[in-house]
Amino acid sequence: MSLNTQIRTLLTVITEAAIEQVLVRDLDRLGVRGYTISDARGRGSHGVREGAWTKSANIRIEIVFPRAMAESTLLHLQATYFANYAMVAFLQDVEVLRSDKFE
């Protein structure tokens, strides 16, 4: 028995928790149907982000959708947030089941 998977694109965004509500509104406005947000900790060019208090908290947003929508969403994030907020984002191809969930 083989899996009937389809290729979609995973957009991962790691950024400041302080802008979560603004980002969620943007994602809704851009037509993103679903996403996962979780707390994130780590170290990068802005130093250690422990997440112990609100000002140092980070979030990780994961969205799976078709490549064109992933790229347009990433371009929006780049144009709107990269210059003023600690934000990194990357794309990966992923294989999914139930591909209709990620349209």
TrEMBL record:
Any one GO molecular-function label of the UniProt entry: enzyme regulator activity
Pfam families assigned: P-II
Gene Ontology annotations of biological process type: regulation of nitrogen utilization
Signal sequence coordinates: none
Protein name, entry field: Transcriptional regulator
